[in-house]
């Protein structure tokens, strides 16, 4: 299954098991090995260091104007959009309950107290009570079932709650990867701010960041898919990593609430021994193959192997775009590039 491959790949990649990490590679060697096809379907690699782009290469049919299908990396942009809506007063906080924004959809099926209690934070941490799990196609909210419907908002709102669901001591439920919940967070933004998700994100994020070329994937009735598929250039993807690195401030203007990035990249749910999840951001340790140093990073990730990784300790953002969809090694490749080439090169001063 597509999502099971995606998550199992994410969970496997953060160690030093791969033989590819045995090299002491340089950036030139990385360029060469990608160009000759040792790493499959990589379309771009960019590195921003100390606020400057210091490495930028495109491969295959890609180029500076190429629109990358970000797949689930879109979710991290949706997280930022929730923050922008809070900054502009559409929401009071991530603790806002979701269902009251959808009164126009009354009656909503299966609307019990547990469902009424679903918050933005529940959706952003993949821990809501909705019976939805993209690793289990038998669940009512499995992503492909939503895609078969005309009205995705109605589909998600009418989902039942997970049997036996409860909150733990942290106040959150169990982690279950749910793209439908991410989509609903985007629709909640629409309801809160009174305009389409496209128009809101364009004004709140894209225009300040200088992003003019993009394509949304949408439902049959035109609902933007906040859970995946937004198409952006590699440089524009990098801007979101830089915005995170700059704590939500761009050119002196605050776009996201103070502390939003810190809260978003805090480990709210533990996914595995090597991975945690924040507000639609993955969190984990990356190991340099040369020095053995550990760099804590948080990152956007999408099916195919695309990644936007932020390393605060190095003042660095790395963008890797890839189209190796639905393959077990897609995330291993991206992490091999990071751990075997990029981190060592910058640690050892090979690139400035």
UniProtKB/TrEMBL annotation:
Residues 1-22 form the signal peptide. Keywords: Signal. This is CubicO group peptidase, beta-lactamase class C family. Residues 44-332 form the Beta-lactamase-related domain.
């Amino acid at each position: 299954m597509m999502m099971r491959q995606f998550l199992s790949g994410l969970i496997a990649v953060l160690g030093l098991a791969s033989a590819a990490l045995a090299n002491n590679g340089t950036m030139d060697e990385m360029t060469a090995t990608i160009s000759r096809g040792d790493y499959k379907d990589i379309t771009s690699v960019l590195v921003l260091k100390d606020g400057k782009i210091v490495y930028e290469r495109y491969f295959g049919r890609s180029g500076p104007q190429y629109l990358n299908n970000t797949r689930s990396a879109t979710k991290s942009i949706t997280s930022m959009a929730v923050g922008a809506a809070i900054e502009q007063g559409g929401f009071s906080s991530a603790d806002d309950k979701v269902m009251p924004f959808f009164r126009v959809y009354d009656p909503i099926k299966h609307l019990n107290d547990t469902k009424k209690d679903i918050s933005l934070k529940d959706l952003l941490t993949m821990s809501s009570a909705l019976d939805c799990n993209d690793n289990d196609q038998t669940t009512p909210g499995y992503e492909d079932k939503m895609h078969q419907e005309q009205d995705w908002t109605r589909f998600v709102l009418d989902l039942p709650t997970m049997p036996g669901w409860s909150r733990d001591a942290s106040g959150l439920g169990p982690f279950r990867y749910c793209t439908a919940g991410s989509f609903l967070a985007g629709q909640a933004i629409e309801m809160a701010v009174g305009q389409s998700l496209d128009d809101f994100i364009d004004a709140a994020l894209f225009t300040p960041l200088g992003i003019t070329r993009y394509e949304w994937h949408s439902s049959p009735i035109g609902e933007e898919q906040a859970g995946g598929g937004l198409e952006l250039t590699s440089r524009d993807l990098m801007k979101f990593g830089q915005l995170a690195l700059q704590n939500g401030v761009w050119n002196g203007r605050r776009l996201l609430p103070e502390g939003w990035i810190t809260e978003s990249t805090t480990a709210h749910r533990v996914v595995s021994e090597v991975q945690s999840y924040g507000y639609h951001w993955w969190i984990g340790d990356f190991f340099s193959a040369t020095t053995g140093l550990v760099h804590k990073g948080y990152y956007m990730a999408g099916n195919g192997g695309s990644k936007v990784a932020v390393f605060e300790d190095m003042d660095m953002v790395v963008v890797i775009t890839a189209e190796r969809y639905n393959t077990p090694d897609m995330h291993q490749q991206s992490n091999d590039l990071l751990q075997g080439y990029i981190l060592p090169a910058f640690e050892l001063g090979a690139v400035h």
